[in-house]
Amino acid sequence: MYGSLLSQDVISKSFAGILSDLPDLTIDAPEAPTVVGQFMARAVADDCLPPKFVSSFKGAVESSEAMVALEKAEVLLSLKHGIVRLDNVWGVGGGIRPVKTLMKKMVLLLKEYLSSGDVKEAIRCLLDLEVPHFHHELVYELLILVIESGKENTSTAMSMLLKALCEACYITTDQMTQGFVRVLDNLSDIQLDSPQAFATFDNFADVCFNQGFLPNRVLKELPGRGRKRYVSEGDGGRLKENGRNGHISS
Fold it and tell me: Residues 7, 12, 15, 20: is their CA dihedral positive or negative?
């Protein structure tokens, strides 16, 4: 309804009215301040309310109930990865969310991880999405970010995260394989925007394997045609072969 039937101004006035009515509402619904606070935070996250709405009312309300609601909203919005977490503010599981929404959340999660470097927090946010069957998408999006960046520090950070997820069994070998194969199948298109896509992809696979968490059988399952394309990347028409010994083979 927002944007077509209701303007942001109308929604803001409605929330202001709810805040003023909270003392009466709390009589019959003791949890009203908490629920309204959650609703406000979600409305800000969905761009239905302006970000300044919560702060503009702090100190301007008289009732303790309204203060509780505003403080609840402020806490939710200030949490690390708060926007991602607000998808579950009503306790809704991730499995019912549209695939495109989950994809966007995973990309956001990965970008915030690159900014913070907090592996534990990134894993916690992934688990909050409640879609363990969809973790192959995280592998795919992670590889795309590595390729698009082309930077060693991105590769290092992402390999650390992937290793932690594998060691904790949050990403299975099958999901790892699916993510890698999906990227490999799309490398020709990816290369249009990232000319070094093949080399970056191959190097990252080596990094993962050398760190001991990418099984040899995953590499063997990757279609050989992707590696043969290196003839177009300055190898003088020679196929690039990498020795991979002394690592897990199961």
Answer: negative
